[in-house]
Amino acid sequence: MMTPTNLIVPSWLRYGAVAAISALVSGAGAWQVQEWRLGARISVQAADIAKEREDHAVAARTADADQRLIEFSRMEVNAHVTYQTQQRLDAAAAALRDREFAIVGLRNALATAESRSRATSSDPAPPTGADDPATLRTVVRECAAEYSTMVENAVLAGAAVRGLQEYTEAMR
């Protein structure tokens, strides 16, 4: 009778079977280890990508906030310059009104002086040349008109220059 122990299996077959099984186990183990390594590497890369995305999102939020702050600062500067320009224009308008009042005052003073000179004049001959009230009135009118033009130009030029200076200083 043949028992399994009596069964004669050539040794090369036994060693071959053991070697094949060992190779299969070793191959499966190596495959598993390689899979673990690749899984770990993929996890690290995924974490790095997530970290980069988060960093980019933070940088974008910071850049947006900085841009909003810059725009707000520009808006404040523009509002300030606009306010200052309006103040200067109002001051220029007040100066022009004051100038007009001064001109009216000069004309009234001239008219008063003319009427006084007529009333007190005992000389039957009318005044001529530089003493003539009409001549004086014409000279004063021309001087007042020229003065008005000069004041208006100076006030407007000054307002424009100050506005430009403030705007360039504010934008620095």
Primary descriptors:
172 residues; mainly alpha; 87% helix; rod-shaped; single chain
Structure characterization notes:
Helix content is 87%, strand content 0%. The chain has 172 residues and is mainly α. It is rod-shaped and about 165 Å long. The model has no long low-confidence stretch (mean pLDDT 80).
The run of helices and strands is HH
Q: What gyration radius follows from the Cα positions, in whole Å?
A: 52 Å
Helix content: over 70%
- Uncertain runs: none
Question: So what's the overall shape?
Answer: rod-shaped
Largest sheet: none
How many angstroms separate the termini?
Answer: 110 Å
Write the layout of secondary structure elements.
Elements: H1 11-120, H2 133-171
Helix pairs in contact: 1-2
Brief digest:
With 172 residues, the protein is mainly alpha-helical.
